[in-house]
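Quick one - inputs below.
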Amino acid sequence: MPEILDRARAQVLATGAGLDEEGILEVLRLPDEHLPELLQLAHDVRMKWCGPEVEVEGIVSLKTGGCPEDCHFCSQSGLFASPVRSVWLDIPSLVEAARQTAATGATEFCIVAAVRGPDRRLMDQMREGVKAIREAVDIQVAASLGMLTQEQVDELVEMGVHRYNHNLETCRSYFPNVVTTHSWEERWGTLKMVRDSGMEVCCGGILGLGETIEQRAEFAAQLAELDPHEVPMNFLNPRPGTPLGDQPVVEGRDALRAIAAFRLAMPKTILRYAGGREITLGDLGTRDGLLGGINAVIVGNYLTTLGRPATEDLALLEDLKMPVKALSATL
Amino acid sequence: MYCDRCGSPAAEGEHGPCETARRLEPPRYCTHCRRRMKVQVVPTGWTAGCVEHGVLTSR
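Output:
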C-alpha cells in the first residue's frame, strides 16, 4: 500500500484530523491501480466520522439567468451568449417544489438566485417564500443568493434560513481565471459573516474548470481551513455559450480520486454530490462515489440542467443500505 | 423546424450531440420559431414557454 494511504489511515481514520495540502496532492497523484484502496479508505473514514446516513437535498432556482457576474462556467451569466433566459419562480411554485422535494425524503431545500448579491426585491421574495414553505412543508430551508452584507445575513437568520451556500468554486490561485467581476476574497468575506451568524456554512465548488492537480489540492486545503458544514462537489458540465463551453469533462477516475481526497481532507464534513456527476461518473461512478466518501446528494434536477430521477438515487441508497438522514436528526 | 437545444435548423447540420445532451437538459429554443423560451427547472420537472407557441412541460 502506498505510504500516503498508510499515513491517512493512521491520521485521518484514527484521529479524525484531515490531510494537509501536501497529503491531498499525494492522494490526487495516486495511480489508478490504487484507486480501489483509496476509495475504501475514504469510505471507512466517512463511516467512522459521519456514519452511514445520507443527507438528501433538493435545489430550485428562484431567479434564473440575467446575472451581472462573469463566472466562466455559468449559463446564467447575462454577459455570455447562453440560451438561458431570465425568469422568476412564483411563490406557489416554490412551495410546490419544496413539497415535492420533501416527498422524496429530503431534509434540505435550497433556494438559489443568480445574482451578485440580493437586492430588496429578492430579499422580500425570500421572506415571503421561506415563510410560505415553513408553514406548509416539513423541510429545512437553505439559501444561495450570492454575496451578502451583514444586514442581509442577519435578515436571513431572522427568516429562519438555517444554512447558506456560497461556493468558492475553485482555489484562490485559479479563481481570477474563472471570475473577473469579483474576487475570491469577497466570497470568503461573505462566508465568514455567515459562519459568525450561526447559520451553517455550505461551501464547495466545481472541478474541471481547467485547474491543475496542484490547484485541486490547494482548493481542498482552503475548504478544510474554512471547515464548512457541507461541501457540494460539482463537476463541470460545459454549457453552450459560456467561455468554458468547450472544456473537456473530468475523467471518472479523476473525479473519484478527488472525492476521496476531499473526504480525507475533511473527514467530518457533509460531502455532497452536486451537478455534473451524471456526465462525469454515470450510474456506476455514482455508486462508486457513495462508496468512496460521499455522504449527501442533490436529488432530482439542478438549476438549469436535469439530474437523475430522485427514485433512482433513493433506490441506489437502499441498495447500498445507506439510510436517508431523517429530518429529526438535522434539527 | 428548429433544434430545441441549439436553435439552428433541425434539417441542417448534425444534431446527434444535441439529442444526447437533451437527455439531461430542458429545451431552450422553440422548435417552431426559434425563439429562446422562458425555462423554469424545478427538482421534479421543467416548463418551457414560447410567447408565440405556448408552454411545454416535462410531464
